[in-house]
Amino acid sequence: MNIAVLIKQVPDSTEVKINPETGTLIRAGVPSILNPYDHYALEAALALKKKHGFKVTVVSMGPPQAKAVVQLALALGADEGVLLSDMAFAGSDTWATSYALAKGIKKVGKVDLIFAGMQAIDGDTAQTGPGVAQQLGIPQVTFCEHVDVDGRRVLARKQIDGGHELLEARPPVLLTMIMGKDYAPQHPSFLAVNGSLKKPFHVWSAEDIGAEAQYLGLKGSPTQVSKIYPPPQREKAAMFSGSGQEAVEKILELMKSEHFIGE
Ligand SMILES: Cc1cc2nc3c(=O)[nH]c(=O)nc-3n(C[C@H](O)[C@H](O)[C@H](O)COP(=O)(O)OP(=O)(O)OC[C@H]3O[C@@H](n4cnc5c(N)ncnc54)[C@H](O)[C@@H]3O)c2cc1C
Predict the structure, then answer these.
(1) Are 8 and 60 in contact (CB under 8 A)?
(2) 248 lines ligand 1 (CB under 6 A)
(3) Quick one: CATH architecture of 2-215?
(4) Which of 1, 219, 221, 246 could form a disulfide with 93 if both were Cys (CB 3.0 to 4.6 A apart)?
């Protein structure tokens, strides 16, 4: 089988700061990393490669500097890397991103399994994986913590509220991965980094993947961000000391004074 893994380069921070004047993200001085969920997705794909000998291709869409995460994935064991990079992609929302990624996957060739992270830690929408499945017209299983393959059966253990669900699918199928304990993120050795430089690496433009300009960038994005702002700071929590009885009395006193409960 052939596996494609969707990986995104993100700022190394879950606390994205916003410029209050311009309403844009402050990226300066924030190093970039492989999206942590995508690292798990990659490890899941590499585990299948190790067990069954599948081929793993990573696909990323981003500016030229996103090459670093593709190179990292190659050093970690992926066989082939693809970076979709073109000014035509700039300003794409999740739907336009999904369109470009789906086009990129089609150009990769016959792909049986597509892995994505559950979400990116900067955009946080968790829409891109499902969007790609929709664009390709294939089934999807989200929130997976483990994936295995038995012949033509794809077996996925998915996290749900209060438990797990075991699902079976037939390829081609797209799976989004959570950060479960089954796939510990690895670090590449120096030799692996060196070796990765010889692996196939393609940089494709919109034209290369046959993407139509009307479906890309701001023009192809049905959502428009009108404003970004940090949520208002919460008031500090009140702390009460003393015995349990004393603390409860103080809490009741406060709740009465704030009119949460009657006298
Ligand atoms: C109107 C609008 C304009 C935007 N303009 C820009 C802009 O100009 N520049 C910009 O950088 N961002 C822009 N964004 C953000 C951009 O759309 C998202 O970063 C992107 O679509 C992915 O969404 P997400 O970050 O929520 O990822 P999620 O949907 O949370 O990601 C889920 C998974 O999908 C995969 N994935 C997501 N994005 C990529 C990718 N690029 N390559 C490969 N795999 C991926 C990964 O496996 C990831 O774990 C814009 C968003 C909107 C709504």
Answers:
(1) yes
(2) no
(3) 3-Layer(aba) Sandwich (3.40)
(4) 221
Q: What is the pLDDT of residues 128-177, one digit of tens each?
A: 999 999 999 999 999 999 999 999 999 999 999 999 999 999 999 999 99
Ligand 1 contact via 62 beta carbon (within 6 Å): yes
Residue 58 Cβ contacting ligand 1 at under 6 Å: no
Say if ligand 1 is within 6 A of residue 129 CB: yes
d(Cα 167, Cα 74) in Å, to the nearest integer?
30
Atom 16 of ligand 1, nearest CA residue? 93
What is the number of other CB atoms lying within 10 angstroms of the CB of residue 103? Answer: 23
Q: What is the C-alpha separation between 138 and 112, in angstroms, rounded?
A: 10
Q: Which of 85, 89, 92 to mutate to test the pocket of ligand 1 (most atoms within 8 A of CB)?
A: 92
Amino acid at 44: A
Going by alpha carbons, the residue nearest to atom 48 of ligand 1 is: 117
Residue 18 — very low, low, confident or very high, per pLDDT cuts 50/70/90?
confident
Q: Where do the structural domains in the chain lie, given as residue ranges? A: 2-215, 233-263
Which residue do the tokens 């990393």 mark?
33
CA–CA separation, 59 and 64 (whole Å): 13
The two three-digit tokens of residue 120, written as one number: 């990116």
Cα–Cα separations (whole angstroms), residue 94 to 101, 220, 221: 10, 10, 8
- Give 209-251 pLDDT, tens digit per residue: 999 999 999 999 999 888 777 777 777 788 888 899 999 999 9
Would you say the CB of residue 97 lies under 6 angstroms from ligand 1? Answer: yes
